[in-house]
């Protein structure tokens, strides 16, 4: 009983602190925005409480050797990505790392991961998922290096920040978190399929989403937020897009008999640099007290990437190393198919995975 009382008090403390910062920095433009801000805050703290309760029991993953496997990881040079990379190397995988700055990434990786694990197992390539030409060049270099890849982890991401369009005309968060990874997955499908045939084992795609996807919406009429932009809500939208993408991929792979399993996951509220533009940026003490470490957050991602027990359970949304509830919109197969087709049209993709 005391434990639950402490959790409730902690929740109230966090809610008060963030709400104070939010309304001190700016005032919502209308009542609808006020409600969206409250929902965004609530989603974060709901999952925070779940992590505190369920994390110690379920957030565990067993690593095992996969020395013949090749993984592609975007954004693996800091924070959560570094911890994901380390665990992949502990599984003896070769990892192709897609990063925006190769030299900075190399320095970061070599300072964090012991040289005995690296052993020429990390290949650095330029990739900015917010730039479609960069994504295409990255995919081309991966294809030149490898006939097959066993694992694709779509991890690169940004959160909040001022409104900005990429040079391709997409809202930045949606571009980096979803559009770029959609294109990359499309381009690398032949390598994923080849690896599954060659090894006789299922290849996997893992999209690192967020609990915030529960607050996301599909906005066909204002996809790039030209009419209305709220940083937190746009982040939610991009994370919902990832989960819906995963759901439709699962259905499509079954229809095409492709031996590839897609998963989406929420690593938890992880204390990394992704919060540098968020409401809790200045609450360092609170982040350290309540959030997961990058290593703890990486466990769920690696679970989705290698756990044998979910081999035949593709399309699921995973948190704390177990399948979890996803947003109702993502459970609507027709809506997922519609959004998938909408994205293909935006990118000029006629036959996903085979163009």
UniProtKB/TrEMBL annotation:
Keywords: Membrane, Oxidoreductase, Transmembrane, Transmembrane helix. Pfam families: adh_short (PF00106). This is Uncharacterized protein. Coiled coil: none annotated. The chain crosses the membrane at residues 6-23. It comes from the Eukaryota. The lineage of its organism: Eukaryota, Metazoa, Ecdysozoa, Arthropoda, Hexapoda. One of its GO terms (molecular function) is oxidoreductase activity. It comes from Chironomus riparius.
């Amino acid at each position: 009983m005391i434990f639950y009382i402490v959790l409730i008090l902690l929740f109230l403390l966090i809610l008060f602190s963030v709400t104070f910062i939010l309304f001190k920095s700016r005032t919502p433009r209308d009542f609808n925005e006020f409600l969206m801000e409250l929902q965004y805050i609530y989603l974060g703290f709901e999952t925070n409480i779940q992590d505190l309760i369920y994390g110690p029991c379920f957030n565990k993953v067993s690593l095992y050797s996969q020395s013949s496997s090749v993984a592609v990881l975007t954004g693996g040079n800091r924070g959560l990505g570094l911890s994901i990379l380390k665990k992949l190397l502990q599984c003896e995988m070769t990892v192709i790392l897609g990063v925006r700055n190769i030299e900075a990434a190399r320095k970061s990786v070599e300072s964090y991961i012991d040289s005995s694990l690296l052993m020429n197992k990390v290949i650095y390539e330029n990739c900015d998922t917010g730039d479609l030409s960069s994504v295409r060049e990255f995919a081309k270099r991966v294809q030149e290096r490898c006939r097959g890849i066993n694992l694709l982890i779509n991890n690169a991401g940004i959160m909040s920040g001022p409104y900005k369009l990429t040079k391709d005309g997409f809202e930045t968060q949606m571009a980096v978190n979803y559009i770029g990874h959609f294109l990359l997955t499309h381009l690398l499908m032949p390598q994923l399929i080849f690896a599954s045939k060659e090894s006789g084992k299922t290849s996997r795609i893992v999209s690192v989403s967020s609990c915030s996807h529960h607050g996301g919406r599909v906005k066909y009429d204002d996809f790039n937020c030209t009419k209305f932009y709220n940083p937190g809500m746009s982040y939610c939208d991009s994370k919902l897009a990832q989960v819906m993408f995963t759901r439709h991929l699962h259905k499509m792979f079954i229809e095409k008999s492709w031996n590839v399993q897609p998963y989406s996951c929420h690593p938890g509220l992880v204390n990394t640099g992704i919060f540098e533009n968020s409401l809790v940026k200045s609450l360092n003490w609170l982040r350290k007290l309540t959030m997961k470490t990058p290593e703890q957050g990486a466990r769920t991602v690696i679970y989705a990437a290698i756990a044998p027990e979910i081999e035949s359970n593709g399309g699921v949304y995973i948190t704390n190393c177990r399948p979890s509830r996803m947003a109702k919109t993502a459970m609507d197969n027709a809506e997922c198919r519609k959004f998938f087709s909408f994205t293909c049209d935006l990118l000029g993709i006629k036959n996903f995975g085979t163009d």
